[in-house]
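Below sits the subject:
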Amino acid sequence: MIGQLLEELRHTSWLEAVAALSGISYVWLIMRRQRLGWPVGALSSIIYVYLSAANRLPMQSVLQAYYVLMSAYGWFSWTRNAREESGRVYRWSWRRHLLAVAVIVLISIASARWLAQETHAAWPMLDSLTTWSSFFATWLIARSVLDNWLYWICTDAVMVFLFGSRGLVATSLLFSIYGIVAVFGYFSWLRTYRAVSA
């Protein structure tokens, strides 16, 4: 199995490799609350707009375009947060999260039905669910909400399968790494939340 994985990684295109490496750099920088992560993430997302569309994952392509826009918003939001609130991290109540999850599921069902009827999407429900979860989690990152990492842990686990099933092994591996970093990100931001709240 390891041998097969290494063989498939050898066939990774240079474009996917650049996207994956810049994606890893992005999540590492964001975990450390460094604004440079936003433009690095934009580079990765621009490449993944193309790769997702070329591999019949239309919602992932839309999601990557959204990431490019959120990179600009995240940069400015974090700049303001650092200047006005000393890099404060926020938490949401469980009620707000329950409402968010319910909305994500409902929107995902609607978009999955549309994808199944109108496109050749490979995995309509998974594509939709991970896309809408990612939209929301990215917004939470830009707003410095600690709980974004919990959404990412769940979403990244599904993305490993989603991209792996389409033969994008480097990207599947990237999402495995994202999931691991998300765990560290949660605890890193939790320390910041506790320190600033105290």
